Amino acid sequence: MASSSGNDDDLTIPRAAINKMIKETLPNVRVANDARELVVNCCTEFIHLISSEANEICNKSEKKTISPEHVIQALESLGFGSYISEVKEVLQECKTVALKRRKASSRLENLGIPEEELLRQQQELFAKVSEAVQYCLWLFLQFDTYKFYALDLGFFSFPTTETGTSILL
Asked: Which of 54, 66, 76, 123 is 20 to 30 A off residue 149, Cα-Cα?
């Protein structure tokens, strides 16, 4: 069993998680603190056992990151094959949730900005671009050549050669 030093506390499952699991599993049973501590220690030891075996499997396959497949192989090799179907179900649920989160984070409606406001912002951007294009056309017509880029307009950058000469010259 683990001692109660600071380093060992970093390597255990949070007691709140264990208490919640015990309460959900045994809702009408009072569990003594010693028993709760034993459950924490057993869970921690189980995780260390599985992760060590998964790490060995990972190293044998010359990988640098432990994957879910390594954990599943570790469960099988340590005699916990009966857990594999449930582990695969949970893994699939996790993948589904992660995919939904990625999709949800990129959706426009999740920005929290009403569609009318987005449309107004879009129209404002179109107006700014239109003004910039009109100003550039006006400048172009004011000069005999298109060398107006020498003016510091702030919204143009023209490609140059290695010597710094504009390609447009």
From this structure: 123
CB-count burial class (<10 Å; 0-12, 13-18, 19+) for 157: exposed
Confirm if 41 and 13 have CB atoms less than 8 A apart: no
Q: In this predicted structure, which of 29-43, 49-63, 122-136 has the lowest mean pLDDT?
A: 122-136
CA 3 vs CA 45, 65, 77: distances in Å: 13, 29, 29
CATH of domain 6-83: 1.10.20.10
Tokens read off for 108: 């426009």
Q: What is the pLDDT of residues 14-42, one digit of tens each?
A: 889 989 999 999 999 999 999 999 999 99
CA distance 143 to 139: 7
Mention every residue, 6+ apart, whose C-beta is less than 8 A from residue 118: 108, 111
CA nearest to 147, candidates 126, 130, 127, 168: 168
Per-residue pLDDT at 146: 47
List every span in the chain annotated with CATH 1.10.20.10: 6-83
Ramachandran bin of 62, using left for φ above 0, alpha for ψ from -120 to 50, beta for the remaining angles: left
Q: Is the pTM of this model over 0.85?
A: no
